[in-house]
Amino acid sequence: MSLVRRCSRTACGRPAVATLTYVYADSTAVLGPLATYAEPHCYDLCAEHSERLTAPRGWDVVRLTDGSAPSRPSGDDLEALANAVREAARPHDRAAQAGGTGQGGAGSGTGETRRGHLRVLRSPDS
Length: 126
Known about the structure:
Layout: E1 18-23, E2 28-33, E3 43-45, H1 47-51, E4 60-63, H2 75-88, H3 91-97
Parallel strand pairs: 2-4
Antiparallel strand pairs: 1-2, 1-3
């Protein structure tokens, strides 16, 4: 069993990057990011087939992806996330700076120091 989902189009073996769903009541085809798991009434499409998608006459196509937005987090986004995790890992420091007693933080009043840890996970593409 392969972990990579493939395009639903016949004779296409490329990896899927988008999921197509039809909303029959609204005569709409919705093309969005790849769903987290395969649905029985949805179709996974590769990049080429998702770009060339057309709907039946009288139907609308709603594309939920924005081509101008970066598909991966930038270095600034990752740095901001790391800073937020570091800040959240030291609630007693913020309370002390604000003139508080450090109550409400994990390990406060017991001499324990709580440290946050980050892990770098490799992308399945690399």
